[in-house]
Fold each of these.
Amino acid sequence: MSQNLDIQEFVIAIAVKQQNPTVLTADFLKYSGIVPSDWELARPPILTNAAAQVVFQNGVSIIAEVNRIVFSELIASKEPQDVSIPVIARKYVETLTQVNYQGISNNFRGYVLFDQNNSTPRNYIFGNLLKPGLWQEFGTSPVQAALRFIYTLKEAQLFLDVNEVGLQLPDKSLLPAILFSANVSHTIVQDDPGQRLANLVQVIGNWHTDLETYKEVVNTKFLTSGNYQVNLAPDESFIFPK
């Protein structure tokens, strides 16, 4: 048996209470030292009263909305020490200390490709995760399933979504795959703003612990049977279920 989880994306989402999204500009990020001054934009920033977005050429994206701030990064080819957004997120919250931060989640998305030896995502979901029944026999085409598993951890909750997706190759053909999306949610419950900020920074600094938890659950609880081969090339993309 050969199987691998290929982790593609890391997202830090911080819940806030009534922030002003227009604070988020490329100039603010650079002048305040949140991001390096030599980072180049991938496209013009978006700035409205309801939301703002800044995307850099290295794959780092920052979005500010009234009730949250989201940092995302493509990490498929990066070592943990080269991942940028934990440092960026920490600098952001330490710069904007007046914002009322409510909670934080570390989110990861990874894929498992299936070989062509009679193994498919559908067989995996319906043969390993679900019990066959009459619920499958309805409609004009085979039923599709999207599953969510909720795990209670010592200091967080892990929400793990399992979906069937297709990997689109350069020739437009599709390879079957399973998408494992994890949300590790932490509540920041301190009344004191200083302690709340310290707790938030601590969760950001321990992001690799959440990553290892995600990898452990998927690799040891979901990928323990079958023959699933992962090998993503940089020019491959996924078509996600609607």
Amino acid sequence: MRVTQEGYLHQLTWLPRLFPVNCYLVEEEEELTLIDAGMPYSLQGILQQSARLQKPLTRIVLTHGHMDHVGALDALKKLVPEAKVYISERDAALLAGDRSLRAGELQTPIKGSVPSKIATKPDVLLYEGDTIGSLTAISTPGHTPGSMSFRDQRSGALIVGDAFQTFRATAVSGKKVPLFPFPAMATWSLEQALASAYKLIDLVPSVLAVGHGNLVRHPVESMKHAAAEAGRVLVNGGKVHG
């Protein structure tokens, strides 16, 4: 496991050169918030880094319900039962294995590895604008219908799950990247992902922290370029981003 620190943010990465999977520990004054729970093999690394920081892990926040972001959740919750689990109200259904679409949603099948055996139930259902310690929840649908991003109000860092990837190239979710197309293949709606990408760009983040790939400092220009590339994909597909 590789650890990269940027201010209050600690990026934990497994298989960084082959198939990077990231979780994040966010330091508060007296406690830690974990964002995403990686794969089942991520458990020991999360516990070890939490112990190094010498603060209790009190929150587990999930950006969305895909298996590579919730894989260690059950084991972690058993070992740290006091940690509250947070996920968007919409993606709580995915966490429970329910791929059903709601009325009013784009009727495109939800893609990716949705858990079928996660026993943990969320303690808190999140909505746009909710606060979790120093973090503010931002609704960023596209990769999944209920994907969320989180902005650290102290630093301006954005933790976006799979709304963007930075491995091989910076790209909006749904825009395929050569040699690492997997986030795109698991994306529900490129059109909604692009709208969410522009929403994140407008926040002018100091750091972009993604589910797959390295941290990017001062990322706005690379995010704008990625959004333009995704927009061209939509136009070529007969759709135009408004």
